[in-house]
Amino acid sequence: MNYPSRVMTIAGSAAGGSAGIQADLKTFQELDVYGMSVVTAIVGRHPETNKNVHPQTMEAIEAQFYTAIQQVGADGLKTGMLFTKEVIETVAGLIQDSGIKTIVVDPVMVGKMNSKLLEDDAIHALKRKLIPLATMITPNIPEASVLLGDRPLHTLQDLEQAAVDLHALGPKYVLVKGGRLTGPAVDVLYDGETLTTFEAPRIDTVNTSGAGCTYSAAITAYLTKGKPVAETVHLAKSFVTTAIEYGFSFTDIVGPTYPIAERKYGEAHPITVKTV
User: Fold this and answer.
1) Does pTM surpass 0.90?
2) Beta carbons of 215 and 265 less than 8 angstroms apart
3) Nearest Cα to 78, choosing from 231, 261, 219, 203?
4) What span, in angstroms and rounded, lies between the C-alpha atoms of 15 and 21?
5) How far is CA 99 from the centre of its chain?
6) In whole angstroms, what is the distance from residue 11 CA to residue 61 CA?
7) CA Rg, the chain, in Å?
8) pLDDT in tens, the chain (276 residues)
9) Residue 204, exposed/middle/buried by CB under 10 A (0-12, 13-18, 19+)?
10) What is the rounded CA–CA span in Å between residue 221 and residue 107?
């Protein structure tokens, strides 16, 4: 039997199922990799205390990681919401000792509704401890701005320079996602030498919860399966664009992307790829 690649996500659990661990595992399943999870925090708002993020203990995080490695092993890994300096440093140590080759860091700092998902004292730890271990980092515009000392990013040229400057933090590849610009949805990939843009049509919908998680999870899946980096980004962007196109909501609250859309509707969005 040819076993699937083994992929782990270390991230927050989104109670509504649209983002975080839930979005990652749905994406892994769609792309035929074996998904495992380490929950760093539970995201769900309490009706009385209004507390929205409920962190797990370091013991619980370590226990999940070691259990997954012992029972299954891992070929690739992605990180999402880590939330505190202590979690970032713990996860960086676990990754460094694991020998896992493919590491995708989605530096989750700002949620879809501009909610803060990373504490201030954790940003330095993220830049110093975790990002240098990454095969690829996948910041959106607000996250790239924070990593660059709150630098304003308003144009495609700003994103290109941001990708170059973020590469200096130590990852092998940087993908800056331009979904918050106007016009087509353009992302910028930098490999240390060449800038490449990936352009998709902008989908007119508010139901994009979990889009970033789905995108980085797809990137992790394709990289772990051995796809070249440029092809990986191309495939993952097509996958997430289709998922966004068929996003929906059960209520009047912003709803999820739909990870099974590409398979269900047989559509893969055309992506325009250009070398800058």
Assistant:
1) yes
2) no
3) 219
4) 10
5) 21
6) 10
7) 17
8) 889 999 999 999 999 999 999 999 999 999 999 999 999 999 999 999 999 889 999 999 999 999 999 999 999 999 999 989 999 999 999 999 999 999 999 998 865 555 556 667 888 999 999 999 999 999 999 999 999 999 999 999 999 999 999 999 999 999 999 988 888 999 999 999 999 999 999 999 999 999 999 999 999 999 999 999 999 999 999 999 999 999 999 999 999 999 999 999 988 889 999 998
9) exposed
10) 17
Q: Which of 231, 260, 271, 212 is nearest to 28 (CA)?
A: 260
Q: How far is CA 49 from CA 13, 90, 253, in A?
A: 19, 28, 20
Q: In the block, which residue shows the tokens 């649209």?
A: 18
Residues in CB range of 234: below 8 A, 6 or more apart: 198, 271, 273
* Dihedral sign computed on CA atoms, order 228, 188, 267, 28: positive
- At 6, the amino acid letter reads R
DSSP codes, 162-228? HHHHHHTTS-SEEEEE-TTSSSSEEEEEE-SS-EEEEEEPPP--S--BTHHHHHHHHHHHHHHTT--
What strands lie across the sheet with 6-14, from one edge to the other? 53-55, 34-43, 6-14, 76-79, 102-105, 136-137, 173-177, 185-190, 195-200, 272-275
How many whole angstroms separate alpha carbon 216 and alpha carbon 137?
Answer: 9
Burial class of 1 by CB neighbour count within 10 A (0 to 12, 13 to 18, 19+): exposed
